[in-house]
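Is this the right way to post structure tokens for a design question? Let me know if I should format differently. Anyway, here goes:
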């Protein structure tokens, strides 16, 4: 047998590309459906303590300086002492929402805010329209 050294062998890579494209398509379809799950042992919590929603405290001041805390009416000049006594029945972690008429003096709203802070509330919000 005589070999002709001038002929170069040709490499046909078409079947290789076809197989790789099929494998790629299979992986693209299967990969999103694969879920890796690791087992984790979580610590137990106390079952006696349950989270409860603390009702917020709504303070409303109208343009005539009439104060209303939730559904109770108060006078502005005695609000500091009365709210301090009223707050003893409330949870101090509750959110206080102050709604005041925009025609009121800034000092009136600030005195109510100071009374709320002196009573021990830390989460106080001023309501706005819009």
């Amino acid at each position: 047998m005589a070999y002709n050294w001038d002929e170069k062998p040709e490499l046909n890579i078409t079947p290789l590309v076809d197989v790789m494209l099929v494998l790629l398509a299979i992986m693209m379809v299967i990969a999103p459906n694969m879920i890796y799950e690791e087992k984790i042992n979580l610590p137990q919590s106390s079952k006696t303590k349950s989270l409860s929603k603390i009702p917020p405290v709504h303070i409303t001041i109208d343009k005539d300086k009439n104060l209303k805390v939730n559904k109770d009416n108060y006078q502005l000049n005695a609000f500091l002492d009365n709210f301090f006594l009223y707050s003893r029945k409330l949870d101090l972690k509750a959110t206080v929402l102050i709604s005041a008429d925009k025609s009121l003096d800034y000092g009136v709203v600030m005195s109510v805010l100071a009374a709320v802070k002196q009573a021990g509330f830390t989460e106080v919000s001023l309501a706005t329209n819009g």
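Format looks fine. Someone answered above. Worth noting: Helices lie at 14-30, 79-87, 106-119. The mean pLDDT is 83.
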